[in-house]
Amino acid sequence: MTERDRERDRSGAREGPGAPPADGKPGGIPIALRTEGLCKRWGGVSANDHVSLTLPVGARHALIGPNGAGKTTLVNLLTGFYAPSAGRVWLGDADVTRLAMHERVKRGLARTFQINTLFAGLTVLESVVLAICERTGLASTWYRTVASCTAQIREAQDLLERLRLGEAANTLTRNLPYGKQRLLEIALALAMRPKVLLLDEPASGIPAGESTEVFGVIAALPGDVTVLFIEHDMELVFRFAQRIAVLVDGRLLTEGTPAEVAADQRVRDVYLGEPAGGSR
Length: 280
Known about the structure:
The protein is of the alpha/beta class. It has 2 domains: 1-108 and 194-280, Rossmann fold (3-Layer(aba) Sandwich), CATH 3.40.50; 116-193, no CATH class. The protein is 34% helix and 21% strand. It contains 10 helices and 11 strands. It has helices at residues 3-11, 71-79, 101-106, 124-136, 150-162, 178-190, 208-219, 234-240, 258-263, 265-272, and strands spanning 31-42, 45-51, 54-56, 60-64, 86-91, 94-95, 109-111, 196-200, 226-230, 243-248, 251-256. It is globular. It starts with a helix and ends in an 8-residue tail after the last helix. Mean pLDDT is 84; it is low at 1-24 and 275-280.
């Protein structure tokens, strides 16, 4: 390995064959997130096996598959929670494969979790203000109170209004209905001003009416925010996704528009289990 190669590894950047063009626009289409041959193995078990995905800027992309297909593992690889056994991850035109989670967040990659991770003892507004303070570098300024962060408070209030949480701003997080807690988790991710937002089962455990509200908020996100979401409710997937990737046994079975995926007999056989266009 040359010194230039070592420097490239240290910086987390990559050039040459297999790397995207410098402008991050293969074929003239701006790319927000891309993986190439991504693998994760534990001993002889492959949770992800050479998964290659490309998400253009502004995509609303669903990731579906049976339980144990490796969907959450893939999200963990994208965010840096796991290191891949092989393969690469690009955020825009930057190879972030070796970057830590917090470095990827700084570059515009945010996520929510399958199980809520919230500040139960804080109000909705306080939670979002703290997230904004972290992004702007004020979180380490210990001598400042939250009440003194007037610009951050205004930004948090605007964000809560957009996510239909304005009326709950002064409610303790622990007292929110579960659907509103899911919206708050999305608000915390958006407070980091991400370029790419990864949502792990955002409608999990939510009554049907509230899950539609959650996905309505997701659908209304700014067009420059790219969204990849895991979801088991096929009615929501086919209603809100522009494209769908199907993962089975850690491998990418197929990828396409909702109509293409619904018509694929292999998908119906291993996952949907019913005629094209049906819900699960």
